[in-house]
Every structure is written in C-alpha cells, then in structure tokens.
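Dear colleague,

Following up on Tuesday's group meeting, I ran the structure prediction for the two-component complex that the binding team flagged. I've pasted the input sequences exactly as they went in, so you can double-check that nothing got truncated or mislabelled along the way. The structure tokens for the whole assembly follow below. Feel free to forward this to whoever is handling the docking comparison.

Inputs:
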Amino acid sequence: MSSRKGQKGAAQVVRQQLARERRRRRTIWVSAAAVVVLVIAGLIGWSVWSSQRSDDFTPPTGSAENGTGVVAGSGPVTVDIYEDFLCPVCKQFDQTSGATIDQLISEGKIRVVYHPVAYLNRFSSTEYSTRSSAASGCAAEGGKFREYAKALFEQQPPEGSAGLTDDQLIDIGAGVGLDRDGFGNCVREGTFKPWTEHVTEEASRNNITGTPTVIIDGEQVSNPSPEAIRAAVAAAGK
Amino acid sequence: MTVTTPRIRAAGWPAVRPWLGVAARLGLAAVWLLAGASKVDDLAASGRAVNAYQLLPYDVSTVVGAALPFVELALGVLLLLGLATRLSAGVSAALLVVFIAGIASAWARGLAIDCGCFGSGGQLAEGQAPSYLPEILRDLGFLVLAAFLLIWPRTPVSVDGWLTGEPVVEDEDE
C-alpha cells in the first residue's frame, strides 16, 4: 500500500519535472525569438537610415572646397557660422551681428563660411529647415546667398508651424533679384537637398550640436555679440 | 500579532501582484512605443541627439540613433503582447541604465543638452536650462517597472501565459 502510494508520488514528480523541463525549453525558444526580433528591428532602423541618406551631392557655386558651406569674403581670418533658417536665435543673431560681419567682410578682414544646417525639421510639419536650406543653395547658385538668407530670417515662420511654402520661398528669391524661373525650378526640384544633407551631417560630425554656432579661427564664440566677434577676429588676426 | 500581519499581506499580495504586473507591463510598453514613435520619423535627428552626448564617435552615433527607435518600438510591442516578458524587461532595464548613465555623464560634464528621450534632443537653445534631474528620476521610475517584471514576469493576458498554459502562480507551491 505504502509502496504503491510511493510509486504514484514518484510518477507525479517525474511528470512535474517533465512539464517544467518543457516550459523551460519553451521559454528559451521564446526568448531567443525575442532577441532575434530586437536585433532585426535594429537592423531595419539601420537600413532605413542608410537608404535615406544620399552620398551624391552637388554643392552650389561659391561653396567651400569641402562643400559644407557658402563662402563670402576672402580675409585672413575664417569665420564659420552654422544656422538654421527656422531657429529664432539665429534670426536674432543675424539682426544684431549680421551687419558687423558684413562690415568685416568688406574690410577684407574675414572669410565667412555660412553653413545652413537643417537641424530643426521636427519643428515644422513640412521639413522647412531642409527646404529653406536647399533654397538658399539655389540662391547661392544665383550669387545671392547672403541677400536671400537675410530675407529668409526677416520672414521667418514660427517653430511648430508648416513653415513657408515653396511658392513663398520662390517669391522671396524673386524679391532679392533672383531669376524667378531658374530659381523657382531649383527650389521646386529640391536640387540642393542632398547638399543640405551633406552640410548638416558634416556639421554634426564636427560636434556642432546647436544653432547658431559661430566659430572664429577654430574657436567657438559662446556669445557672438558684435563686440565679441570683433574682439575674436582681432585676436585671431594677430 | 507578529504572525497575523504577514499572513494578511500574503493573502492580498498574490491576488494583487498579477494585476500590478499587467500595469507595469503595459506602462513600460507605452513608454517604449511613445519613445520610439517620437524618433522614428527623423532618424538623422535621432543620430544627432545621440551624438550630442559626445560619448560615441559620430558614425557610431548615427547608427545607434537609427537603430534605437526601432528597437524601442519592438520592445514596446513585445511588452504589449506579453511575449518573452522577462527578457524584454531585462533589455528594458539595461537600456534604461545606459540612458541614466548617459544623462548623468552629460550632467557631470556640464553639457547643455536635452536627453532626446522622447523625440527632441541635442543642444538646448540659449537660456534654456537642462532638466537632468527630472529626466533621471523619470527613467528611474521606468526602471522600477522593468525590475518588477524582471522579478515577476508572469502576468495575466499575456502571450507567455497562453504559450505555457499555466496559471500565473505556479512556483509558490514548491
């Protein structure tokens, strides 16, 4: 009697152990499948990103040799300016210090490289940062980058809006004296969007994490007021 | 006295625990789905947000920035379904620890960046103060959810439960 009871108990223990073993194996398989899912998800992200970026770009005329910005002036001190046409502080910077920079250019003291980066695409519903930067490339092609950039800042749309339409971007171009047909085609076709991407990527690579960023002779000017810019240019020119 | 109190708690806890588990699982799933969705439509910006921590070389940052939103979404779906819950909770906890360490190191180095946890990221505009402490506390809260699921991965209404076909309380009677 007692041994039979013992056998019954033993069989139950074995059955329980088998069931546990089955569960354990199933858990391992499920976990392995989940790891595969996570790895595949990461690979999908990587491949989506790789397919989004294009390697070929044509810089507009008047670009720096590496194609990362538009050059103005030919003075001995190089000033790099990174700006996004949607960035309110960039507009402020342009209005307070733009004239000083233009003056330093005409005095032959500096060579400015404007980098119109597209950092703030998520703050407009139409990728205004990319579109406006690409349009500024079209303006550079027509020899009027600076005039166009100033006009873009004057008519800057607010962050979080749809931004200006392509038609508005073209009207602004015509307003600063660009050829409406040629410039208009260039804006509509997004001719310089790959260039914008290149400008933006190279800026990130150089650890430019925000806009506006002003770098004079390789040194970042943290508060680029007219006085600070003049002082930094004078110091670099020595 | 000393005997009755734990017994009452023991009676309540097994009843409450599975549903706390469901709440933790769905809460954590929502966190990952929101975090992933907010980054997935601008992978370049996601890469820049990673790069802003200045911890990884630029090219590595872009790959991490591109892969991360998709991994977050996948984790969210796994947790939502309750599939491989313990593993998902473990990966969640590991990611959260990395995020907390990243934010803490940005804080310690005096960088002024947004964590980029839910979309926006990168350098802050002038006059904008970083909010590292709330970001870390929030991530610690998520970490508690992940830890709960790591310890008690079996929750009702989960694919795990359906696959093994076992009641939620199983190890208790051994």
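The helical segments of chain B are 4-40, 43-51, 58-81, 85-108, 132-151, 159-164.

Cheers,
M.
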